[in-house]
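Have a close read of this protein, sequence plus structure tokens, and explain what the tokens say about the fold. Thanks in advance:
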Amino acid sequence: MKITVSQEQGRVAVSVLHVAGQLDGQTYQNLISKANEVIVGGVRDILLDLSDMTYISSAGLVALHTIALLTRGATIPNPEHGWSMLKSMDRTRDGGFQKHVKLLNLQPEIKNVLEMVGFSEFFEVFTDKQKAVASF
């Protein structure tokens, strides 16, 4: 997996993390670490550009959920608690869409997985980068 970071300016500063490749048990901690770097650097709003992401596993779902938690001030959880993190998403989802993490350009396979597990109710998805940036 390759992650590149760029900055966009809308009403607020937005970090765009472009994820290419597979987001799975081997790579999910890299994405969490990169998002944490951005947040520690002072940017709270993250747009995950997944246009080149080819696969997402349950560990990848944990990464997306963890990033949402980080933008709300949580600390990086222990990776050994990944499964319990995944199970806790239902409790977090009650608040509607995440305000500080949004998704861009999902491949059909990725979109299907996110819809199957209910993440379409958790993360707002865009196909236009400028509209996504303006939505923060």
Q: What stands out?
A: Helices lie at 28-40, 58-71, 82-93, 108-116, 129-134.
